[in-house]
Amino acid sequence: MFSNGKILGIAYLLQIIIGVLGNFYLICHYYFHFKIQKSPRRIHLILIQLSFANAMFLLCRGIPMTIYSWGWTFFLNDVVCKIITYLQRVFRGLSICSTSLISIFQAIVISPSSTKWAILKDTLHKTMVPCCILCWMLNLLKDAALLVYINGPRNITKSKWKNKTRYCYMDTYNIDRLKFQYLSAFYDFITVAAMTISTGYMVFVLYQHRQQVQHIHSTKVYSRVSPEIRATKVILLLVSIFFFFNSACAIITIYVDYFKAFSPWQLYVPMFLSMSFQAVSPLVLIRSETWSLWKFCCSIQGINRSCAMSLFIVSHQTHTEPTK
C-alpha cells in the first residue's frame, strides 16, 4: 500500500521525466534547425533558452521535492540548500523572461508592414542575443541575496526561521523581507505586464485577420493560413497555459497564507502547479512543430545513408579502375 508521500513522489518524478525529456528534445530540435538553415530564425535562440530554463527548473525544484515527499527531511546542508534555492529562483525568472520575450517578438513579427514597424523588426533581430544575455544577468543578480539568507534544514524552534520549502529555511530577522519581496514582485510585474500587453495585441491582430478571412471566404477566394498566424496561435496557447498554472498556484498560496491552513496539500499542490508550465509547455511546442521527431530522425538517417552511398561509390570506382 503506497502512502500519500510516495504517491506524490511518483507524481513529481513523472512530471520531471516528461518535462525534462521534452525540453531537451526541443533544445536539440531548435539547435539543429538553427545550424542547418541558411537564414536561421532568431526566435530559436529564445526557444532554446526557454527550454533550457524549464528543464533546469524542473530538476532543481522537482528532485528535492521528490526526495522530501518520500520522507527524507534532512538531506541538504546549508551550502547545497543555498545553491538549490538560488538556482530555482534564477531558472524560474529566466523562464518567465523568455516567455515574455517570445510573446513580444511574435507580436512585432505579425505587426503591419509599415516603415516604422519594419525598422523595429530589423532592430529586434539585431538585439535578440543582447536581450537573452540581459535576461540572464537580471535573474542572476536579482536573487543573489538568497545565497546569504537561506539555510539548510535544522531542528529549530525559534520563530525567526520561516519554512518556505520544508527542506530549506529563511532567516526573517537578518533580511528586510519587504524590500526583497518588492524587488522580486517588481521584476515579475514588469515581465508579466509586457507579456500581457503583447498577448493582447496578438489577440487584436488575430481578430482583424479573422475578419479579413471571413470577407475573403464570402467572395469565394481560397486563402491559406500563414506560418506567422499559426505560430502566433501556438504562442497564445503557451501564454494561456502560463497564466493558468501560475494563477492557480498564486491563489492557493494566498489562501494558505491568509487562512493559516495547515494540511499536506498546502505545500504539495502549489509546488506541483509551479512546475506544471515547465512540464506542459514542451508538449505544446512539440505538437505544434511541423518538423516532427520522425522527420528529424529520418533526416539524420538520410544524411548517414547519403554519406555511406558516397563512400560506397568511391570505393567501387577505386576497385574497378583498370591498372595501368
Automatic annotation (TrEMBL):
One GO location term (cellular component): plasma membrane
Domain G-protein coupled receptors family 1 profile: from-to ranges: 22-285
PROSITE patterns: G_PROTEIN_RECEP_F1_2
Parts of the chain that traverse the membrane: 12-32, 44-70, 186-207, 234-255, 267-286
Main location class: membrane
UniProt keyword Membrane, yes or no: yes
Topology versus the membrane: Multi-pass membrane protein
UniProt cross-references to InterPro entries, sorted A to Z: GPCR_Rhodpsn_7TM, Vmron_rcpt_1
GO biological process: one example: sensory perception of chemical stimulus
One Pfam family per UniProt: V1R
UniProt KW keywords: Cell membrane, G-protein coupled receptor, Glycoprotein, Membrane, Pheromone response, Receptor, Transducer, Transmembrane, Transmembrane helix
Location of the protein in the cell: Cell membrane
Keyword Cell membrane set for record: yes
Gene Ontology MF terms in the entry: pheromone binding; pheromone receptor activity
Membership in a protein family: Belongs to the G-protein coupled receptor 1 family.
Function: Putative pheromone receptor.
Name of the featured protein: Vomeronasal type-1 receptor
Organism: Monodelphis domestica
